[in-house]
Amino acid sequence: MTPTSPNESEPMITDYVTGRSVPNVGAEANRQDVERLLVEEKGYAPEEISVDAPIDMEIDGEIYRSRVDLVICLGPRPLMAVKCAAGNLDSRQREIVAAARLLAPDRILPLAVASDGRSAIVWDGVSGKQIGTGLAAIPHRSRLAAEFGSGKPPAPLDAERLAREKLVFRSYDSMNVNTRR
Length: 181
Description:
CATH class: Alpha Beta
Structural class: alpha+beta
Largest sheet: 6 strands, mixed
Strand order of the largest sheet: 3-4-5-6-7-8
CATH topology: tt1808, chain A
Number of helices: 4
Number of strands: 8
Shape: globular
Radius of gyration: 16 Å
Distance between the termini: 25 Å
CATH architecture: Alpha-Beta Complex
């Protein structure tokens, strides 16, 4: 029998990276597949993967708080934001690219990824252009470190562009259903 959460009737599973018990709702099974891929095939250590990374922003004087499914950090530098989803991955582009532009106040994350655990789309965080498809397009840790781990990170957005990206992220994020948030 699958355990359920104490306050709800949702089945629970163990998160691959954190070891915590989490409700198996929405795209959670997809996220577990992506986490497993990142660790077992792409070479990331579990401590380099932030699960449900907080993202907070001020929009019109109010704080909007949410979470990004996965954020990959090498050392103190966040480098890749990942949206784990079911269904059409193309439809996740604006949300995850906006997250890559908003997560770090002093830089844009170089990569934004949407994956269902069986396929993936990778976008450049600065330009928003698609740069790869399929699980092979998600960079191995050594490649991410070599290409983006040192050197000057992409500069943050100007104030006007930043305000627009906040609205884009909130619009798409608020439409997510069957999430634990």
